[in-house]
Amino acid sequence: MDKVTVGPCTLEERDGEIVSLTRWWGEACAGTGRLVLVGGDAGAGKTVLVEEFGRRLGDVRLLRGSCEPLTTPLALGPLRDMAHSLSPTLRRKLTGPADPAEARRLMLDELRGGADPTLVVLDDAHWADEATLDLLRFLGRRIEACPAMLVVAYRQDEVGTRHPLRVLAGDLAALPVVRRLTVPMLSEEAVARLAAGTDIDPAELYRRTGGNAFFVTQVLGDGRATVPPTVRDAVLARAARLEPGAREALDALACLGTRAAPWLVEAVSGRAAEDVDACLDRGLVAADDGAVAFRHELVRVAIMEAIPPGRAAVLHRRALAVLGTRPPGEVEPARLADHAERADDRAAVLVYAPLAAQRASGLGAHTEAAAHLRRALAVFPGRLDADRAGLLEELGRQCHLADDLDGALRARQEAVEAWREVGDDRRRGGALVGLAITAAHLAREIPLGEKACDEALALLAGQPPGPEYALACAIRAKLSGMAFRNADAVTWGERLLATADEDTGPLDRALALLSIGIGRAQDGDLAGLDLIAESVRLASEASAHDQAGLGYFWLQLICVTRRWYQQAERWYGEALSFTDDHGQEVWRQWLRAFRSRALLDQGRWDEAEALATEVLRTAGVDDGRRMIAMVVLGRLRARRGDSDPRPLLTRVGSIMVTAEPVVGWIIGATPALAEAAAYAGDLDQVRAMATPALAAAVSQGEPWLLGELAYWITRANGPAAVPARAAEPYRLQMSGRPRESAELWQEIGCPYEAALALADTAEEGMLREALAAFDRLGARPMRDITARRLRRLGVRDIPRRPTRAAGPDGLSTREQEVLTLVADGLRNAEIADELFLSRRTVEHHVAAVLRKLGMANRSEAARYARRNDVTDRRPTVPPLDPHNVIGHRTP
After folding, report:
1. 880 pLDDT band (50/70/90 cuts)?
2. Is beta strand 291-294 parallel, antiparallel or unpaired with respect to 148-155?
3. Which of 424, 702, 711, 881 is an S-S bond match for 665, by CB 3.0 to 4.6 Å?
4. What is the strand order of the sheet 291-294 is part of?
5. Residues with Cβ < 8 Å from 217, sequence gap 6 or more?
6. Against a cut of 0.85, is the pTM above it?
7. Are the C-beta atoms of residues 591 and 552 closer than 8 Å to each other?
8. Alpha carbons 307 and 802: distance in angstroms, whole number
9. CA triplet 766, 771, 776: central angle to 5 degrees?
């Protein structure tokens, strides 16, 4: 019989899961750490399974924490749960001055340095805050070198396609340390075994519970022959037999959260210790390391929903009164703010919510900080004053840091207006700078950013010198650089540098050097990169980590768009490590977006596809990160002859319609659309896309964009005058010198462009070279075009088109990816959204997977994937390898 015993209860059908956990624990004990994602529906038995696994291990170092269902999650809540078992240094870091990067490093040290292997259990991760997710991301990328296993349990039915935890799981999916486990519902046979010896009809029990392990145990624990229709009814039936005092204690605990100290339950409920003990005796709560806790969140929710609203508000007011008198630092402001909101105490919300936001921000939980600020603003009196304006300004900053750029834009616009009504020009100037910063990250809002920055400079010029003016100069320089007005970028940087004196800090100098470096590097001067690198160093010295991340962003942007791949590789690893260490997921995604483009350019197409797909999954908004990734995937589809790339590229183009003249050289949507149209034989569309863009590119002057657009127009119109500033490889190609162009492309490191140059001839030898290159890359459209050109020359011994290799299951890379998402429980529409494919394309992939595996349905395929670790075979993205760079020449 497939079951294990846990105390007085029987845990059915979990032997396979226990075996898997035990195997992975053995690997962790041998020094190869593991991150295990344990999913399942509410009540499936995830927590009980993990508890039984830990019990079987015996005397091991166990660190355990849970996320709580507060209105706004508590930053690093799970780490606080396990604080008593952590080092004193880390405990102080969690309760003292906030430093999320240091807290993450100290937690990693806990897992590395212990004499014994460590099992870390993080429960209810679907409620995790942003800082906790950053911690999981940080540990997941480093745990392989630790004798530790991190088990993360979550409700699969509450984690949708855009849920932060699913985004995190997608980000970590390619790591070899990650393992997945799904805890299914019990079978009808298992429910019948559990019901044996009772008066309950097992078939009725299974029909009502659906095999939900928690529901089953609640019914069986009640001792009645009838089966309640819902979990809530089963819980309330047990609670109804409590004495009034015990029920009051139970209600108080439900308002306090999933667990609380007995003295606190007594103080809030006004009942004696004996009433709390009665709840323990009834089995609704359990003793938990000096506290009392609900046996399951479903119990707490059922009790909470049954409390009349007026009674619940009274209990929250009592909790606020009791906890508000505790010594400073003992109770988190987030908990007090939660009770204040539920008690409808607006004055208390205005006190505690901003404090909670400050604490959450300090720990890196910017999403939660923004939620606390919105909570405060929602109860703010109607008058406009400096306090409200300050809250709006801070909300904009937190939304920006949380990657909610649309929310940041709205809040910062409101802050500008609020400071205008207050009459404070200096603060309004600072708010305008913030607005410009956010607008600069949203391609469609670049014009708004320029307007806000100019208005800020005009306001701040009449104010005493301050950091706002320096930042405004830096943002103006950045906007000039994005528009390729390089001389302006240098001028703004030099203006900022000229205002420096002996009191000027390293941050102002860093801002100035960044501006000058951007302008010079984009004009082709490699020494500009060193200025940007010095800016990064100065910003790091000043602990201005976000500014340092911005410097790394520009290093990658310039190196990749100018095709300086060796320089890109030089900085990429360092930049990625810095952003990872400091929890800068937004900058990290930008770096990876540029990297995906570099991989595409260098002919490493499988890696480019894997990385661009990851960026699409993890980036939260339709800014440049997602658009670069979509362009990379669109160009891959066009070059490989896969599904039609134009809907994906058109989506990018529609977003870029107001910003293309400014940042089109970064995104590359128009050249990509022209390329796709050319392969489809739609030359009218090539002209319609590229001709107006070329006119804008001539005035803009960026050589690579200029050269590429001119090249596609010549493909449609035939030979034409070569733009004076076109990049050298394009100039050679359009001037009828294909061999020299191809050699230069090879030196730079772009094999596909080199093959394109060779294919633009009527010379058999060069066409054969191009054909071989297209075959190596898997570029079917250009391969077929080149083969036709050879046939027109009378060549007959043309090699057959090679087929793409399938995986060990006979599945293509895309089919393996689709199967992974099927195993995660996603429907076709969700998979289409995740992979940016049409629903029909996904349906074809799923049908192919079922046919190749010989499976009857999705459930069988999902079981096969989990059993055979198909989820561990996603394409990986290794770091840039200098041996894979074909060559380098500074254009």
Report:
1. very low
2. unpaired
3. 702
4. 259-260, 291-294, 285-288
5. 9, 194
6. no
7. yes
8. 68
9. 125
